[in-house]
Amino acid sequence: MSMQPPGWSGQPLPAPQPFPGYPPPKAPPKKRWYGVGAALLLVGLAVVSFGVFGLAKVFDGAPDAEHTFANGEMKTVHFDAGETKVIFVADRGEHDTGQCSISTPTGSDDDIKMDNYEGSLTINQWQALFTVTARTAADYAVTCDGASSDQFGVGGDAKATTLVGGLFAVFGGGFLCVLGIVTLVVIALLRWRRKA
To answer: Membrane-spanning residues where (predicted)?
Structure first.
């Protein structure tokens, strides 16, 4: 009796096959990925700097000591033709802030335009109340009547959109910087591991 397994009538068993082994190692990433990481980092830094510039412009809009005045006092402020400034109140709280008036050198209301500030903007303790646009360059007298403790000031043309845009630019640029740094580190590690 033969010791062959059934179905192998007289044929020898096939030779064992060698183990397939490991696949060839992956090639290291191309060096151009360093350029991608560096570009992300540079773009991120540029966006952050634009955001910081925008935020600085907003915070420069707050009234300085020369342009602040108490309730009922008059403050003379110079406007260039077409320039817009904002009237602020400090620490407004819950009470109504009253009204402000501007007297022009010519006595004509056509020289100046004053509107309620659209939206809400607070810079440090200063809250925006009115926007004032002068049609002609001159010194204008500003007076505000409100609560006896109110402190008013005239500052630059600060816009809430500039503040929000500056914040988004700082955070978005920061994200791009982090993404660029992570890209550079990952590419460096992969190139180092796959060289061996």
So the answer is: 33-56, 167-190
66 and 39 both lie in a single domain: no
Token pair recorded at residue 68: 């602040």
Note if the pTM is more than 0.70. no
**Residue appearing with tokens 């192998």:** 8
Domain count, the chain: 2
Q: Which range marks the domain in which residue 37 is found? A: 31-57+165-193
Q: For residue 91, what are its two tokens?
A: 């620490």
pLDDT tens-digit profile of 103-127?
877 676 678 888 888 878 888 888 8
Asked if residue 104 and residue 138 are part of one domain, the reply reads yes
Q: What CA–CA distance (Å, rounded) separates 142 from 160?
A: 23
Pairwise CA distance, residues 193 & 185, whole Å:
12
Q: b/e string for 133-172 if b means 16 or more Cβ within 10 A?
A: ebebebebebbbebeeebbbbbbbebbeebbebbeebbee
CA distance 66 to 60: 14
